[in-house]
Design goal:
It contains 19 helices and six strands. It is mainly alpha-helical and 435 residues long. Strands 1-2 form a two-stranded antiparallel sheet. It has a two-stranded antiparallel sheet with strand order 3-4. α17 runs antiparallel to α18. The radius of gyration is 22 Å and the shape is globular. It starts with 14 loop residues before the first helix and ends in a 10-residue tail after the last helix. The structure holds NADPH dihydro-nicotinamide-adenine-dinucleotide phosphate (NDP). Keywords: Cholesterol biosynthesis, Cholesterol metabolism, Endoplasmic reticulum, Lipid biosynthesis, Lipid metabolism, Membrane, NADP, Oxidoreductase, Steroid biosynthesis, Steroid metabolism, Sterol biosynthesis, Sterol metabolism, Transmembrane, Transmembrane helix. It catalyses: cholesterol + NADP(+) = 7-dehydrocholesterol + NADPH + H(+); 7-dehydrodesmosterol + NADPH + H(+) = desmosterol + NADP(+). Belongs to the ERG4/ERG24 family. Its EC number is 1.3.1.21.
Length: 435
Amino acid sequence: MKSTAPKNNPTEVDWFSLSSVIALLCFAPFIVYFFVMACDQYQCSVSQPLLELYSGETTLSAIWARSPSFTWGAAKIYAVWVGFQLFLYMCVPDITHKFIPGYVGGVQDGSRTPAGLINKYEINGLQCWLITHAVWLANAHYFHWFSPTIIFDHWIPLMWCANILGYLVASFAFVKAYLFPTSADDCKFTGNVFYNYMMGIEFNPRVGKWFDFKLFFNGRPGIVAWTLINLSYMAKQQELYGHVTNSMILVNVLQGLYVLDFFWNEAWYLKTIDICHDHFGWYLGWGDCVWLPYLYTLQGLYLVYHPVQLSTPYACAVLALGLAGYYIFRSTNHQKDVFRRTEGTCAIWGRRKLLTSGFWGVARHFNYTGDLMGSLAYCAACGAGHLLPYFYVVYMTILLVHRCVRDEHRCSSKYGAGWKRYTDAVPYRLLPGLF
Ligand code: NDP
């Protein structure tokens, strides 16, 4: 297809973005390490290591020396895991869409890229998730090839392996963008090497016709792993205490619902900002390999060290909050999806329409509000003993507020006066009356 918008003229990066990028590149791996280490060495207290460091009771090198290091055993587990996901993604075309009513899988079109390409994707995430979890359950209850606590038992050595893969993927994507880009017209060069490395140059890097970096790394080693990690934490609780707490079940159920929703709607994911606007670099590559599996699962990890048993009314309140958040999240996304697939797809005088009714008339990013309610529910399931499990909702708030700002900046230039009319009619972003 003919390119319509070549994007490889270098663009300037402001000093604020550049310093944020360099800070993240330097500190993000240590943030992940800090939380996991705090659980391993300080029973998930985030203040204790800081206080001990401040008072001189311990040193950074002592903390580092106590941390489990890289092991070849963990490397083998990780290689089998990534290899298995790669096999499922590349070699097992989707058949579930043929017999699950209402599910959209198989070969689907992505959105039009800035250069005018429409990529095809093999949507088989639900099938990969089902097969992976069927193997996991069959092993736990029947075959016993490996312990169901295997992930927890190698958690820190696996983190080093995930970091190696994350940096390799990001570096490969960076070099590939210069040497053999998939679509040269979709590359974005900023003239700053750190920014290019972190935020990515290529839009939809691929190897061959079907291996898509964004779809694979976000969905497979990232989101398929999420529910398996939680199951491993649940098995560890059972092993250590002889029972599983209701808080652990809540976290598994609510996050399991979110993960299943993602795979059920994987075709919809092709239309989200990650795929439609972000370029693939360290931010997505390393983030999918390390940040997502390690920090999105902190609640389950915490509950292994602190087996909180919630009162029934409190547990019901958390469940209600999580389900209400999920309902808002899913309905809002669904309303836009239906709107875009029906009359909202047409362009009038070159402009697409904006939805101003339903949840999109309550606030301009009510899908984010639902997501944040769900995030708060996961954290609240851990009770109020420690700060660590609440990291997730703090992080999601920063992520989604930042997304609001950058998305609105883009929408304002894309829709012009139409966006102004929309923001006048729907003045709040996340919470009517507040923000
Ligand atoms: P959205 O699905 O909200 O997409 C924003 C885009 O929607 C805009 O760029 C615009 O695109 C279109 N749009 C905005 N307002 C309107 C309107 N009124 N009518 C019609 N179209 C409109 O954002 P994301 O892709 O960021 O998020 C998708 C979901 O994923 C969210 O629910 C979010 O919570 C979740 N998410 C979760 C993350 C996690 O780590 N757990 C991370 C990021 C997102 P256009 O003009 O091209 O149609």
